[in-house]
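Quick one:
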Amino acid sequence: MDVKWVRPKSIHITLKFLGDTPTSKIEQLADAAQNAVGGFAPFTVSIEGTGGFPSERRPRVLWIGIHEGDEKLVQLAVLINKALTPLGFALEKRPFSPHVTIGRVRSLKNIDQVVQKMKALDLAEKFPVNTIEFIKSDLKPTGAEYTVLKEIHMKT
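Output:
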């Protein structure tokens, strides 16, 4: 098995990947996102199911699915996607698929066993969604290191 597992403190849901973005643009991006999602109240998501992208048979990414709250995450992603387009970010071509990445596959050795163990997991956790964060990712030999640059708090 050759999977690089995501450290628990690094687990998150990516609504929009911004790539290499100057820190000086974060306020402008956060303002646009805040205006786009200003009417959203906090909500709850639950995790359910596992899988792999692009497929379970040949995954590059292993994930846990989002069940309850998935429609709201899709709505948030669409609103943010549209709000950031005038600021130079391309519209996403693929539909947003709510998930939590838990591992990146380095080789397919014994991947069937990993997928079967993931399917056997009893996932029944719920989590609040009340903040959208702009996160900087620094890739290091020990894994990605994340820094929150800006938070948007949802309307309560």
